What we know:
Two copies of one chain form a homodimer.
Chain A: E1 2-7, E2 11-18, E3 21-29, H1 36-50, E4 71-76, E5 79-80, E6 85-86, H2 100-108, E7 112-116, H3 117-128, E8 137-142, E9 146-152, E10 155-156, H4 188-191, H5 193-202, H6 216-223, H7 227-251, E11 255-259, H8 261-264, H9 267-280, E12 290-293, H10 298-308
Amino acid sequence: MIIGIDIGGTSTKIGLVDGGKVIATTRIPTTGHTDEFAFADALAEAALQLTPHRRQGAMAGEPDNGQLTTAIGIGAPNANQLTGIIEMAPNLPWRNDVPLAKMVQERTGIRSVLGNDANAAALGEWRYGAGQDLNDLLLVTLGTGVGSGFIVNGQLMLGSHGNAGELGHSIIVMDGRQCTCGRKGCLEAYVSIRGLRRTYTELDGDPDVLKEAGVLCIAKAAEQGDAAALQTFRHAARWLGVGLANAVAVTGPERIVIFGGIARNGALLMAPLRERFQEYLLNIYHGRVDLVTSALPEDDAAILGAAALTTL
Amino acid sequence: MIIGIDIGGTSTKIGLVDGGKVIATTRIPTTGHTDEFAFADALAEAALQLTPHRRQGAMAGEPDNGQLTTAIGIGAPNANQLTGIIEMAPNLPWRNDVPLAKMVQERTGIRSVLGNDANAAALGEWRYGAGQDLNDLLLVTLGTGVGSGFIVNGQLMLGSHGNAGELGHSIIVMDGRQCTCGRKGCLEAYVSIRGLRRTYTELDGDPDVLKEAGVLCIAKAAEQGDAAALQTFRHAARWLGVGLANAVAVTGPERIVIFGGIARNGALLMAPLRERFQEYLLNIYHGRVDLVTSALPEDDAAILGAAALTTL
């Protein structure tokens, strides 16, 4: 059994994974701890409570419980798998580098691996979801940010410094929109939640719609025929179509999996995206690259992916 | 010993490679043959004449000459390494798919491998040139087209259909310049030889300068202070800077090697390119990605790269 941990901006999910299934979960808040050491204490405690490692009342003759959980995999934004460090993550509470893999391993006595959350999602989809048995796969997560993970030649692509797979920070419009990374024109500035909301505003959408957070509000408006909302998704499809076509030209995946709430709004994004993707795709790839949404339950995917980090 | 073959639009170079050195070369025209079968006949004959395989007058007791050349590697535009086929190459004489690996192997009796010319150049640079001992490398060839080859996790990245590494066909300007691939705004349309000449024209450069083919004419004009020529290289540096920064965001190489005559015009391209590349580079990569020109003699590089295809 493996513990998979998904560290999000507000909440951290912890799951026990057995045979590719999440069989138990718990969660702790990511924020509100004194410092990263207090967070690591709480995280280790929650993980140990969830695992058979400390199961109470084991009968004599049962196997050593310590061996039932063999590894802990942790997915987090801005996490570097080569170093085991969360590197100054803008959406997490800590302003410094946090060597969380080492901190959790010291506190639990269980081998712990840290990895980028988008890479974890790609691994989860590859091992357990829509990308099984493929040698070349691209997973794109659409949410607060735009993350991506690439399976290349049957391996997770890490890059020389462990930071590969930042498709969201490829520039699709030179001198375009300001991105949170400090540069201009990144894909993320156009197709993240914030990007879609900005597009809706630029299209003179109804300000009342945006009183609700996220993109579900724009999706609801689109379903009620709001022209600016419909146009917002069509524009997003165009920008994302170019970004995906460029990723295909470079890495040549057999399938692209789109993950995250924006994609789950079904046809609103995916229908125009499929059209634009084909339009921008290099001709040798026509008919050769599937474009699908995630096959995993959203709550489980991040935990399964984090668990899969330990199997690399 | 390995035979390396580089198939170009007009001329095909054949070299005998021993211990990472080209020790003998010959060439045949690529064009002017009746069909692809006649070309394969001529190519096999030239390869056999160059190799010790058919060396005349071997003494009794010498090793079987047949074993001295163990493999033939062939680099060509639009070649697919997974199938061994040149796929409808627009710059070669044949309008159909040509299974050249099989054709050469049948005619020579020597194991033959076909690969994309840019991938071959990347392999050559990785094994023998500026990319030795790196796990993650990007090579970009600037010429008639813009090719690229990626070493990822210590392996050549092929993609699921053998066509990966087409950075030249990533779109850097949406709805931009028409590209020979049928789409618009590809990097190749801006920084290939044709792209630079078009930029010079758009900048109202002196038409007399372009009476000479290639880009050396623009480089010469720039060296004499021609403002449009200098601006042409600065613009190229900007477009290529974005393309390289995007490739880094996705694949995370430790070094980028620029290959081809345009880059050899020294500071004209490389000086502004280094500036623009840093400007467009994602902050986590600052100071972490070398940008260099090829370390191999231009005549040898393609042959060494083709030979390296056989060692995959």
